[in-house]
Write a structure and sequence with these properties.
- Strand 8, helix 7 and strand 9 form a beta-alpha-beta unit.
- The strands form 2 sheets. A 6-stranded parallel beta sheet has the order 2-1-3-4-8-9, with helices on both faces.
- The protein has 9 helices and 9 strands.
- Helix content is 32%, strand content 20%.
- 48% of the residues are buried.
- By secondary structure, it is of the alpha/beta class.
């Protein structure tokens, strides 16, 4: 069982990343509940940084009391952009996550990673924009390569289930400039997966260092919140103790 949380502290808001949904936080959510932590694992629309940040900020602003914002992968970019639009967030936790600076593009960050193999594994699909017959591009990870890219430390069958239930992300999200980052004004913590071949361990680590985050290295793939939920939960509880 995880360490106890502060008796009165912030609500933890868990924001998932691309190719996933709120259920990717299930093991961490379970441990936070056991520790007595108020927690919400929310939906990230995956339609673009400004769109998704507006949605997440709106949700956070409707939570009474302080909030600790936690983002996985693309969800890190979303909280980076959403939190400046909130008034109740007291800290940030990045889990194998992007923490972009103003003006940066996620596509450029992934492209400069020596560890990421994500781009070569993407498949393009179309989705309706809601404007007449207009469509736009969204991407998924090729299911046959999903485990190698995303979930290398999960059993094959478990990985296959996640591969077959991916949520696509609008391709435009990787080409949208990030806004003023929340990490310039709030304390941050980061969990870095040492074998992350999706976002890329190297760039995740670099961004966490730049954000001045308290960094914990966790042996695992991009989905350390699934494969190493105890370790990730401990990072969140550490942040909670610091901001409570």
């Amino acid at each position: 069982m995880p360490d106890s949380a502060p008796s009165s502290g912030p609500t933890v808001v868990l924001v998932h990343g691309a190719f996933a949904d709120a259920a990717s936080w299930a093991f961490v959510t379970e441990r936070l509940v056991e520790a007595g932590v108020p927690v919400r694992a929310i939906v990230n629309p995956l339609r673009g940084i400004s769109h998704d940040a507006a949605y997440v900020a709106s949700f956070i602003n409707q939570i009474p009391g302080p909030v600790l914002a936690v983002g996985h992968s693309y969800g890190g970019a979303v909280i980076t952009n959403a939190v400046p639009k909130t008034k109740n967030v007291v800290g940030l936790v990045y889990v194998a996550a992007f923490a972009p600076d103003e003006g940066e593009l996620l596509g450029d960050i992934v492209a400069r990673s020596k560890d990421s193999v994500l781009t070569s594994a993407l498949e393009e699909y179309q989705f309706p924009t809601g404007e007449g017959s207009e469509t736009a591009v969204e991407v998924l990870i090729d299911a046959s390569r999903f485990r190698a890219v995303f979930t290398a430390d999960l059993p094959q069958l478990q990985s296959d289930v996640y591969a077959l239930s991916q949520r696509p992300i609008a391709a435009g999200a990787f080409a949208e400039k990030s806004g003023p980052p929340a990490w310039k004004n709030l304390p941050a913590w980061a969990a870095v997966g040492t074998a992350d071949t999706a976002a890329g361990s190297d760039v995740v680590r670099e961004m966490a260092q730049r954000a001045g985050a308290d960094i914990t290295e966790i042996e695992g793939s991009h989905v350390i919140m699934i494969s190493q939920p105890d370790a990730v939960t401990q990072v969140i509880l550490k942040a909670l103790r610091a901001v409570s």
